[in-house]
Every structure is written in structure tokens, then in C-alpha cells.
């Protein structure tokens, strides 16, 4: 499991996905940040590996909280994830509802 985690981290680092982070402090990247970045920047094969090292519920929670609300730029990916990984019957509507809920939460704060 640690080998897969290290491999995913290395790929993200090689793709310069952590451009805004202090790389000297990246040894202990959180599981949530790793899942988020893999889903945003790597390919399906790498996303599949997330399910080998993390529980389904954890990956889905990170997707719901950090990836799906990202809006229009990532909407096609999120529709694919909703359908392929999380079994949404109407993935477009599901993703739109997640985005709307996120915006409403921000506006209510």
C-alpha cells in the first residue's frame, strides 16, 4: 500500500501538481489531499489505485467534499466519476446538485 501511495505522490510531484506547496514539508501529505490531487490531475489507472489503498467511503467523501464542488472546469470528470465510481443513475443531475449545495453552503456562511 505504501508503494502505491509513494508512486501516486511521485507522479503528482513530477506533473508539478504541488506548485503551491512547500515541497520540503510534503513528506506527510494528508490522505485527503492525495486523493483530491489524484482525482484532479492523474488518469483513470491512477484513480483506480486509490481504491486499493483507501476505503471506498473515504474516496467518495473526498470527492464529494473537495473535487465535485469545483464547478464547470471539472464537471465532465465529475460526471464520469459519479457514474463510473459512485453509481449515480443520473450523474449530470447528481453533480449539479453537489455543486449547488456547495454554493448554498458558502452563501449561507
UniProtKB/TrEMBL annotation:
The protein's name in its UniProt record: Uncharacterized protein
Species for this entry: Xylanibacter ruminicola (Prevotella ruminicola)
Amino acid at each position: 500500500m505504501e508503494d502505491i501511495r509513494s508512486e501516486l505522490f511521485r507522479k503528482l510531484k513530477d506533473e508539478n501538481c504541488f506548485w503551491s506547496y512547500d515541497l520540503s514539508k510534503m513528506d506527510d501529505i494528508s490522505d485527503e489531499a492525495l486523493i483530491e490531487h489524484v482525482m484532479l490531475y492523474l488518469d483513470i489507472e491512477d484513480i483506480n489505485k486509490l481504491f486499493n489503498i483507501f476505503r471506498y467511503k473515504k474516496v467518495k467523501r473526498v470527492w464529494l467534499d473537495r473535487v465535485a464542488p469545483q464547478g464547470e472546469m471539472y464537471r465532465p470528470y465529475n460526471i464520469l466519476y459519479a457514474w463510473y465510481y459512485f453509481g449515480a443513475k443520473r450523474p449530470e443531475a447528481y453533480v449539479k446538485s453537489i455543486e449547488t449545495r456547495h454554493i448554498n453552503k458558502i452563501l449561507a456562511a
